[in-house]
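PROTEIN DESIGN WORKSHEET
SECTION A - STRUCTURE
LENGTH: 61
TOKENS:
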């Protein structure tokens, strides 16, 4: 490899690494399908547990 090519290669790699640091990742973190289903099941259960029980007078009306 000649001198110019080696210098250009190192400069390009340094620039590439610097640009990679500046880029932000807007993509949401990957969640497996099984984990999504488990989270959905938990959110369905939680509101039922926290809901107040109806009083006896409300049941008769």
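SECTION B - SEQUENCE
RESIDUE ASSIGNMENT:
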């Amino acid at each position: 490899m000649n001198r110019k090519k080696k210098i250009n290669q190192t400069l390009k790699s340094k620039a590439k690494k610097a640009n990679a640091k500046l880029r932000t990742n807007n993509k949401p973190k990957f969640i497996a399908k099984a984990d999504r289903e488990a989270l959905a099941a938990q959110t369905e259960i939680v509101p039922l547990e926290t809901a107040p029980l109806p009083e006896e007078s409300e049941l008769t009306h």
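SECTION C - NOTES
The chain is about 70% helix and 0% strand.
The chain has a mean pLDDT of 82.
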